[in-house]
Amino acid sequence: MDKTTRSVSLSFLSIKNFLTVEVFRLDRIGSFLSPIILPVFFIVFWQVFAVRIDNSIVLPTVHEVLDILVKPTANLLSIGSLIRNVLVSILRVGLGYFAAVLIAIPLGLFIGYSKKVAEFIMPFVNLFRPIAPLAWVPLVLAWFGVTSIATIFQIERGSLYVLFNNIKVSMIFIIFIGAFFPILTNSIYGVKSVRKTLIDSILTLGANEKDVLLKVLLPAALPSVVTGLRIGLGVAWMCLVSAEMLPGSLAGVGYLITHAYTVARTDIVIAGMIAISFVGGLLDWIFQKIEAKFFKWQSMSK
Amino acid sequence: MDNIVEINGLSKIFVSEKKQAVQALRDVNLDIKDQEFVCLIGPSGSGKSTLLRLMEGLITPTTGTIKVMNKPLKGPIPEAAMVFQEYSLFPWRNIIDNVALGLELRKVPKNKRYEIAGKILERFGIEDFYSSFPHELSGGMKQRAAIARAIAISPQILYMDEPFGALDAFTRFKMQKGLISFWLEEKRTIVFVTHSVEEAVFLGTRVIAMSSRPGRIIGDYKIDLPYPRDRWNEEFGTYFKELMTLMNSGDIEKSMAF
Predict the structure, then answer these.
(1) What is the pTM of this model?
(2) Where does residue B52 rank: exposed (0-12), middle (13-18), buried (19+ CB within 10 A)?
(3) What's the whole-number average pLDDT of chain B?
């Protein structure tokens, strides 16, 4: 190698070094910035368009919406604050979801465990799966009308009445339907995907049927069940907000949005949508953390 | 001592989901003496794993009888334990809880079972992985833990279903030596399934050769070589050649038919 080529190749190397270092640095800043680039652009465009349109019914400005979000306890349109309506929605989801969890997990584990039970129940369950939760609304309203938890437990006055009267059986039913299927199918899958060797292993160590269930099937199915719980909660949350937009509701984020729409308060509509996104995202994030923390073995052992 | 396992006229027919019957084993007769190290060899489909699972009591025979320690077998018994090829550790349990599982099922108190399992971990050189999880261990370490788990219930018979089949050659040699020294010290009965003739001759006091479709016993050899064995020894070569010829003759029959 003569002198020129060597110096050329050296300078080439240094450029390459320089580039890799720089690109690496950009990369690190990039990975920090990249998730917020699009949202920032989105907000800028929103603001620019809002100012140009200059009509807060069509599109309110960013700060008009922010004004509502920074005062979440202020009474809106005399139907309660943003926080209160979000809490009513969360309470509703909680009840319907809880009912779905109580039924779907044991049923799913049972179906996954026994082929005979699966053959008996699955065709029936599959009849209902394709029906969108909201398609149940007319029927459910006809059945339950405005019956609420307050009616069922015969609470007739006081703050409990105000709270529970807002939790209609019909809505809980819709949430139940929404959350039920993801939890059920994931629980079934969880049990079915247990490796046969694990069951054989514990049998050779002297396990009875109860041991197989408690020490193999349940722990092995758990990660899948938690995934089902996460997806189910997401679906339940979406169903609820839609259900609240239907007639018969008197509180909740969905109702707040519909009501704000009828009185042409688009800023409240958007604030409500942001609240929905925030709560839904938060719940999902919590579940993801649980999955990552407790079920590390699952992703590692595959 | 007399026979620890007695198998008479054993056959096993599996019925597939399409209702097709497959004969996995036909007319197997086999007696195993206490403290023997028996290797079952054969090509895939020769029913050697099926035979092992029948002996463990995980599945029931179609015809014939199995007696273990002079009692007809009805299911897994505490006197026997089994080691599988791979993925048999519980991924959500750490190593000590995996190894102590058999004792846990027998309701041995926690400190007592950790004491027993801890000693076995030391014996197998995996005490450093006491609180590790299976996914953090190499294949060899995992299999050591799986063997330790089977040993922890102190079985008289140890069934091993291709336990080193998924390991690299170097690790496999180490594990084979370890298994032999364990067997020489502890004097248990081992029934070891493998498809490697060389592994069978290296390990066993006796090698049972099986043929496929239907699975049946075609040869029963006593390997009269002292331990530790030398793979380059002339007699080792003689046993190896003899068994290879036997196994291949079955194959030629098949390939002609094909």
Answers:
(1) 0.76
(2) buried
(3) 88
